[in-house]
């Protein structure tokens, strides 16, 4: 697949923005500036970037508890995201939701989600709505290896298959569900094998290779848009940090961790870009990204706390 300079540099900028956002979140959390829980996407940047690079603004995504990368890659505003992590009134959820509840409907971001596997039926619903209304929008459902053990996963795949929904299931297999290694929580090696049970295409790709992810996603999106139904893409990757900030991740094998750190998706891609003479553009992107994240932090730190009188607005009671 021939990729334009604009596309390649766009991938780089997105991956660098996610990396910078998450790296700063590590520091800010350690410095007690972020009041809530954060689950970071460090090391997995190529997945969200490659997948969302194959989407239009009109397309939808559902995200997870580890959602910052998905949101940024789909165009989410980093200042509003950061302010939400700070619990400030200017954040996406006015400081009431935190990292796991960020959504931006206009950008097709149907929400991060603290409930593992909850995005799968939501994505099936969004894809059904698009099919019913005869738009040609597609939906991507991001979820983890752990979430592929949930009933919601199996129900959503079956529904999407029988109704030929324009839906792309993207399993980010980072080899862990909290402290449970994939080997211990399922008896298949490739989550993509599960697609066969529902009669849909399943493929496994190197989740640390942004171009490989983009190519697989582009094929699946094409198929979905033309009415041929859903696909399952498994992206093999690695969670660099603990499950959440504060989890030292002592259950991980240090040798395995080292091997994966060497497969960092960003320097790998950067090397390719330098080979095709984009060193200057890369340097400019690095500065741009650093400035953008620094501005998002400043905006957040200078923003007001939520007003206690507003505690019951935007809150739903059953
Ligand atoms: C329904 C439900 N069960 C359990 C949990 C607790 N929990 C939070 S994250 C997680 C593991 C998720 O693993 P995976 O889907 O692989 O995502 P990853 O954290 O690796 O990105 C679990 C069990 C939850 N939030 N929701
Ligand atoms: Mg996982």
From TrEMBL:
Keywords, in A-Z order: Oxidoreductase, Thiamine pyrophosphate
Matches recorded under Pfam families: E1_dh
Annotated spans, Disordered: 299-318
Any GO molecular function: oxidoreductase activity
Record carries keyword Oxidoreductase: yes
Residue ranges constituting the Dehydrogenase E1 component domain according to the UniProt record: 14-309
Broad class of enzyme this protein falls into: oxidoreductase
Cofactor(s) this protein requires: thiamine diphosphate
Enzyme Commission designation: 1.1.1.-
Name of this protein: Acetoin:2,6-dichlorophenolindophenol oxidoreductase subunit alpha
């Amino acid at each position: 697949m021939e990729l334009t300079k604009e596309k390649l540099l766009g991938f780089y900028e997105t991956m660098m923005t996610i990396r910078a956002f998450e790296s700063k979140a590590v520091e800010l959390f350690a410095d007690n500036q972020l009041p809530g829980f954060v689950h970071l996407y460090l090391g997995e940047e190529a997945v969200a970037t490659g997948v969302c690079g194959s989407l239009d603004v009109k397309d939808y995504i559902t995200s997870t508890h580890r959602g910052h990368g998905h949101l940024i890659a789909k165009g989410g505003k980093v200042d509003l995201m950061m302010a939400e992590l700070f619990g400030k009134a200017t954040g996406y959820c006015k400081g009431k939701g935190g990292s796991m509840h960020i959504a931006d409907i206009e950008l097709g971001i149907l929400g991060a989600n603290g409930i593992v596997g909850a995005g799968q039926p939501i994505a099936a619903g969004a894809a059904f709505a698009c099919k019913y209304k005869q738009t040609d929008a597609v939906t991507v459902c991001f979820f983890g290896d752990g979430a592929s053990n949930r009933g919601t996963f199996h129900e959503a795949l079956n529904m999407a298959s029988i109704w030929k929904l324009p839906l792309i299931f993207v399993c980010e297999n980072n080899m862990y569900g909290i402290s449970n290694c994939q080997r211990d929580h399922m008896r298949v090696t490739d989550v993509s094998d599960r697609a066969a049970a529902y009669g849909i295409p399943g493929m496994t790709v190197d989740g640390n290779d942004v171009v490989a992810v983009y190519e697989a996603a582009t094929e699946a999106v094409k198929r979905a848009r033309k009415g041929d139904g859903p696909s399952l893409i498994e992206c093999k990757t690695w969670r660099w940090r603990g499950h959440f900030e504060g989890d030292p991740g002592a259950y991980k094998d240090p040798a395995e961790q080292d091997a994966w750190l060497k497969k960092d998706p960003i320097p790998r891609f950067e090397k390719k870009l330098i080979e095709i003479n984009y060193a200057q553009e890369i340097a400019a992107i690095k500065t741009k990204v650093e400035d953008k994240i620094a501005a998002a932090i400043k905006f957040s730190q200078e923003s007001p706390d939520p007003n206690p009188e507003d505690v019951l607005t935007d809150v739903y009671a059953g």
